[in-house]
UniProtKB/TrEMBL annotation:
It comes from the Bacteria. Pfam families: Glycos_transf_2 (PF00535). This is Hypothetical conserved protein. InterPro entries: Glyco_trans_2-like, Nucleotide-diphossugar_trans, TPR-like_helical_dom_sf, TPR_rpt. It comes from Geobacillus kaustophilus (strain HTA426). Residues 5-101 form the Glycosyltransferase 2-like domain. SMART domains: TPR.
């Protein structure tokens, strides 16, 4: 059986660190925690789990801190987490099975990262990340912000899911780092341009976000999933700015890079639904229902677009087209995914009454 080092970088995580470590401490053979300048009880909590708590001066460089943490690992494999991540009980069982059965030929194991969950704990947004890597391979982190772990060799895509559960609002820390680099004249890589644009988008600086997304796309060197995402983000920027035509243009531009994604189809469906072009809207929502959600996609996946949302919107489209039976059928399909959604329950009640009235009318007419 392989041995595992858990490597983490932390700063002022007293509210969540114990929760994270409680979920994984029994699964790993060593815990290495690198603190980048905590002023709360983070290091005290960390020392209750491991003696290997190491200080590292913060330099606005996440990769430097993560590579430092990896350099202190001594086990066969390195597993990394953030302090606001947890491994639920059912995923702990999967992880232990993986640990007992993993072949030493595997260089990296990817896991699903559940970025957000609904009120019932179901994942609504996810991405896949390299999480468990062979120490002897010497894999390195790259990028000062939104860092990535560069791996190669034999990679295993597991179905283990790590849950991200932050307990505080996102800060402007990453945006400030990018702005500082920009002011210093640093040349951004295509990846930097994309993630800088994302930060601008998240801070509702839509005009600047469009500028840097377009710079990213113009490099023609971006990862295809990022290119598709960038087109969608620009469409959302223009939508927020009230420019519907440009929003449509960029939504359609995403098809230049690969086959349609459900997110793009739903975005187009929404565009036509807002314009009351119900048959066109239904076309795009229907296409979204025909696509299969990728199980091993490395891009960000918004689960609603691949499951219940297009059915719910098809219900709306068919309702306004007077095709109530079809509207009801799609609402029932949406209900299979989100049985307690207020819109689903409202539609169900409304459509049942309409269909009952139609049935009564036809019976009376026939008699």
């Amino acid at each position: 059986m392989i041995t595992i080092s858990l490597c983490m970088i932390v700063k002022n995580e007293e509210d969540v660190l114990a929760r994270c470590l409680d979920s994984v401490q029994h699964l790993v053979d060593e815990i290495v925690i690198v603190d980048t300048g905590s002023t709360d009880r983070t290091k005290e909590i960390a020392r209750s789990y491991t003696a290997r708590v190491i200080d590292f001066p913060w330099s606005d460089d996440f990769s430097a801190a993560r590579n430092f943490s990896f350099s202190h690992a001594t086990m066969d494999y390195i597993f990394w987490l953030d302090a606001d991540d947890i491994l639920p009980a059912e995923e702990q069982t999967k992880f232990l099975t993986l640990k007992r059965t993993l072949s030493s030929d595997i260089d990296s194991v990817t896991m699903i990262y559940s970025l957000a969950q609904d009120e019932y704990g179901k994942t609504i947004s996810s991405v896949r990340r390299n999480r468990l890597v062979k120490r002897s391979s010497g894999f390195r982190w790259h990028g000062m912000v939104h860092e990535y772990l560069e791996v190669w060799g034999t990679i295993l895509n597991s179905d283990i899911t790590i849950i991200h559960q932050p307990n505080r609002c996102a800060s402007d820390r990453n945006l400030q780092i990018y702005e500082k680099q920009l002011a210093q004249g640093k040349e951004f890589s295509p990846r930097d341009l994309f993630y800088f644009a994302n930060e601008l988008f998240d801070h509702q600086q839509y005009e600047r976000a469009i500028q840097y997304y377009e710079q990213f796309l113009q490099t023609k060197k971006g990862w295809v999933e990022d290119c598709i995402a960038a087109c969608g983000k620009v469409a959302d920027c223009f939508d927020a700015l009230g420019d519907e035509e440009q929003a449509l243009r960029y939504a359609l531009r995403s098809f230049e890079y690969d086959t349609p994604r459900a997110e793009c189809c739903c975005r187009l469906g929404y565009y036509f639904l807002q314009r009351k072009q119900y048959r066109l809207a239904a076309f795009w929502y229907h296409l979204a229902t025909q696509l299969t959600m990728p199980s091993d996609s490395w891009g960000f996946v918004h689960h609603a677009c691949w499951t219940w949302l297009p059915h719910l919107q098809l219900c709306v489209c068919y309702f306004y087209m007077g095709e109530y039976e079809l509207a009801y059928q799609h609402n029932e399909k949406a209900k299979q995914y989100v049985p307690h959604h207020p819109a689903v329950l409202h539609n169900e009640c409304l459509l049942q009454s309409i269909l009952a009235a139609e049935s009564t009318f036809h019976q009376t007419d026939e008699s």
